Amino acid sequence: MLEGMTFKDPRAGAVARLAALAADETRAACLLALLDGRAWTAGELARHCGVAASTLSEHLGKLVGGGLLAEERQGRHRYVRLADARVAQLVEDLTAHIAPDAAEPPRGLRQSGADSAMARGRTCYDHLAGRLGIAVTDALTARGLLRQDTGFALTDAGLDWFGALGADLGRRGRRPLARACLDWTERRPHLAGAAGAALCRHLLDQGWCVRIGSSRAVKVTGAGERALTDLLGIDTATLR
Amino acid sequence: MLEGMTFKDPRAGAVARLAALAADETRAACLLALLDGRAWTAGELARHCGVAASTLSEHLGKLVGGGLLAEERQGRHRYVRLADARVAQLVEDLTAHIAPDAAEPPRGLRQSGADSAMARGRTCYDHLAGRLGIAVTDALTARGLLRQDTGFALTDAGLDWFGALGADLGRRGRRPLARACLDWTERRPHLAGAAGAALCRHLLDQGWCVRIGSSRAVKVTGAGERALTDLLGIDTATLR
DNA sequence: TGCACGGTTCGGCACCCGCCGAACCGTTCC
DNA sequence: GGAACGGTTCGGCGGGTGCCGAACCGTGCA
Known about the structure:
The structure is a homodimer.
Chain A: H1 11-22, H2 25-34, E1 40-41, H3 42-49, H4 53-65, E2 69-74, E3 77-82, H5 85-98, H6 112-120, E4 122-124, E5 127-129, H7 130-142, E6 146-147, E7 151-154, H8 156-165, E8 179-182, E9 189-192, H9 193-205, E10 209-211, E11 218-220, H10 222-232
Antiparallel strand pairs in A: 1-3, 2-3, 4-5, 6-7, 8-9, 10-11
The structure holds a DNA duplex.
């Protein structure tokens, strides 16, 4: 080895360790699955990834140890979820970077049912995604409540709108209020951040949309269609 | 292996391959070094990282092959730089995630000279960072040209201000106009995106700040101090 | 009390990856 | 032409890692 080395950036080791957590296909599949914001059991993830339970147990150990996942033991079950919104954003960033590659939906006949439900509407960590997420984001923008042309931020009118809606923006911590998240199926940014989470929570709380089974896919209810039309002028026909 | 596997996310492989590029300490050190936005030769990087030239050559092959770096051959030199702003953002995201860990500047007596110059002002890919970058960002915010409270976006007044300044915002592509980038030394967000790049370019073009030697550190000139005071009311004493 | 089940630990296997030095190639400069 | 130099290729070495099945440990249910 040469002697004349200057001084490698001290952050390099930490960055490498962090990236290594996502640098395995099975662990990456776990992170992507957990991006729905729900908690999965170790067994569910093992079946989802197609590896032995023992293998997945070791992966979970690394992900939890690395701070990417939080775990919760209940009886003989081990539930894991993404540790926080920052981790969710990191995973989003990684997928957004490869989005152009993963283009061209395969469209196998078999799973088009579940796929089309996901494309219609789903959760992305704690906010809305799919055509539903895009429709809401676009409507907010068109009404001057959200600015996307000069960055990504709520306007004053937007702040008022959330206040009138009664959706708690929960300004604790320093999580950004509004943030863009690239929608995987629509290839355009949708609303994320504290406002995106508040809006998603509000829609679920009000029964305006409900989860389909226990999946991340969501569907707009009749009351939801009326509310979205009234509040944001959304043409709900595109969401069916 | 079990048979009952469902269907692993097809993006998992691509995410893992991407993360693997950053999952090595030497490659991470390269990416961090290249985050200054300049082009480095293979030899410079090898010395910087403290590995043999042959080792680094292989690393560069992977990074270029993975699309993270762009290369340019000149004579017997091989120059590499980050491929584009999206890659720079990805590296920023990774470092931002580990920032809390890497806290507490070591403050070795030896390198405090170079360090303090970097802390005063530097480039971060194509925009300004360090106390200079923060001062500019804060001044823009205080003057109502940039909104940070509801997201991160220029205001209409901000758009006008850039127009009056004569800094070309270069709205080609879909690069966001304003974006937050976590400042490594200041631990607060500074302005990135097309506007951040335009501003940095303008300051350098006007001779308001100059690079110190061939490093990423920059220093504000006399003319620059006057301009920053006039245009943004910045107290330039904090930048010395 | 006993059994089924989810999860973990352990040993072992195969593979991949980062590292080096030596040899080699092409450019630049004398 | 020849020497110096930047960069690449190749063989080989050592270590790390993902995977599995088998054994094991608790929990929960009959």
